[in-house]
Design a protein that fits this description.
Layout (H helix, E strand, L loop, with lengths): L4 E2 L18 E3 L6 E3 L8 H6 L12 H7 L18 H20 L25 E3 L16 E8 L18 E9 L6 E6 L4 E4 L2 E3 L2 E3 L2 E5 L11 H12 L5 E5 L1 H10 L3 E5 L3 E3 L4 E3 L2 E5 L1 H9 L9 H20 L1 H4 L2 H14 L1 E3 L5 H11 L7 E5 L2 E4 L2 E7 L3 H10 L37 E5 L6 H11 L5 E3 L10 E4 L4 H11 L6 E3 L9 E5 L23 E3 L12
Helix pairs in contact: 5-6, 5-9
Amino acid sequence: MNSGHRNRGDSADSTTSGVDPADQWVLDPETGEFRLDLDAGRPAPAARSRSAAPRPPGARRTPAADTAAAPAGGGRRGRGATAVPGGRAARRKGRSSRGRRVLKWTAGSLGLVLVAGCGGAYYVYQHFNNNISSVKVEVGEESERPQATDALNILVIGTDSRVGLGREYGDEGSAGHADTTLLFHISKDRSNATVLSIPRDLMVPIPDCKAGDKSIPGQARAMFNTSLGQDGRDPGCTWKTVEKLTGVRINHFMMVNFEAVKTLSTAVGGVEVCASTDINDPYSHLKMTAGRHVVQGEEALAFVRTRHAVGLGGDLTRIPLQQQFISSMIRKMKSSDTLTNPAKLWDLADAATKALTVDDGIGSVNKLKDLALDISRVDTKNITFTTVPVIDDPADNNRLVLKPNDAQQLFAMIAADRSLTDVPQQETAPAEPAAPASSAPAAPQVDAAGVKVTVRNGSGASGQAGKAATALQGKGFALAVAGNNADPAAASAVTYPAGHEDEAQAVAAALGLPATAVQPGSRLGAKDGVVVVLGKDFTGAGGAASAPPTEAPKDIQRVQADDTNVCAAKAK
C-alpha cells in the first residue's frame, strides 16, 4: 500500500518571539499571493531599543504605534524607514485588508470539504503546506473512466484507522477501512451541491487496482468499506470502486481519521447538534440528554460514531447523524464568529491540514486554496445530503445491496449534473449527457443461447419490452422473453441471481445499457435468470437516451445543510 508522504519542513515558530504568525504572511499586490515577511508584525530595530515594555505575545501593533516608532531617515522599514503619509503604511493597511478578505473568502468554502463529521479548512498560508499528506493514486486508463465534466466531484473518506490510538477505540492497530464515505458533487455552475453518503456495509464489486507498485485483485462482491485498507488497498482503490458503482467521474479525494473529528470540532469552538430523546450508547460512549448541545473533542467523535442507540441501531441511522454534524459544521465555518476570528481561523486551518490526506493533484496549500475558492460559491441552502438507496441483502440481513432502479436513477442524476435542490438558475444550463465510459460495458464471454432473460417494461412507452426481447434474440439470447409491465422507472436496471453477473453484463452490453444498471437481484433465484426492467432512459436496443432523469427517486433520505431542526432519534 502506498501510504503517501508528508511534505514536512522546518519553519521558525514566530510565536516564541512574541509575533503572531498570521502577521508574518502578507499579500503581495503584484502576484495576488501571500508571502512570508519575517519583519512583518515586528517593531523597527530602533523602536525596539527605545521601547519601555515589550509587546505581549500575539498583540497587534496599531498604525499609530507603527508611525510613532518609525525612526528618522530614509530607507525600508526596519532599516531607518520614515513613515510617509499615503506611502508604505497606507499600502500595508490596504494590503492587510485585502489579505483578510481573501482569508474570509477561503474560510467560507470550508464546509464543502468536511469528511465523516470532520472538516477541511483550506488556508492560504504557506505555513500549512508542511502539514499536508499526499498520495499518488492509480485510477486506470482514461478510456476506462467516466467522462470528465466541468462539475466537480470530491470523494471524501473517513477512515476508522486505529494506528497510534492505542486501545481507546478498540481494534488496536487496525490500518482502517472506508468507515464513512461521501461523494461531494458540486454543480458545473456552482449553484448547488449534492452530498451522497455510501453505506460501509453495501455489497459492491471492487475492481482490480494498484496501490503504489502493488497490484491488488478485485472482488466480484464485497463490503464497500474493504475498498480501503483490505489487502493493502489505498484511497485510489476506493476511488475506482465509487466510479464503477456510480458512473460518476471523480476529480479528487480527501481522507481523515478519528483525530480530525476531535481537533476540528475543537478548533471551531464546538458544533451544535440535536437529540430528540436521551441517548446512552455504551459502544461510542455518547451520553446526551434530549435537546441541543455544542459538542467538541471526544464528545463530537462519540456523536458521529453513534449507531447502536439511534434510529434502527445500524449504519443507516448513523449516517443522518453525520450529515447533521457536517451541516452544522458548514454553518459554523461560514458564520461571522469563525470568519472574523483570526485565532480560530489559524487553529482550524492548522488542524485541518494536519488531518488531511489528499491526492497529489491537490497536494499543496495553493492548490487547495484555489479549490476552496472555487467551491465557496455554493450557498449553504443549496447543499443537499442524501444516501445511496439500498435494501437489505437477502443473503445477510447485516449487509445491504443497491435498491434496483432507485439507485441507478440517483447515480444518473448526479452523473448528469442534475440537482436535488430546487435551483432556478440551472434551468438555463444544458444537461450533461451520461458518462459514456459507463454506457457500454464490454460484453463478457458467455453462452448467450443458454441465458434465461425476462424483459419488463417500466419506460412508459408501449411495446418496449417486446422490442428489447426481440433484439436480444437476434444477438443470440434465444431464451429472452417479454414479461409483465413493471412499475414506472426512470433508469433501466439489469438484475441477476448470485453467480450470474457475467450473464447480466452480457445482456446489458447487448442492449446498450450502462454498466451501473447491472446489480445483484436480492430476491432472484437461479430459476429466475436475468431480469431487465426498462426505464425511461431506454430508447431501443443499442443505446440509452442521452436525457438523464430529471427527478430523484421518491422517498430518498435527505438533509438540507441549512436545516437547523434535524435531531437524532433514539433507537427503536
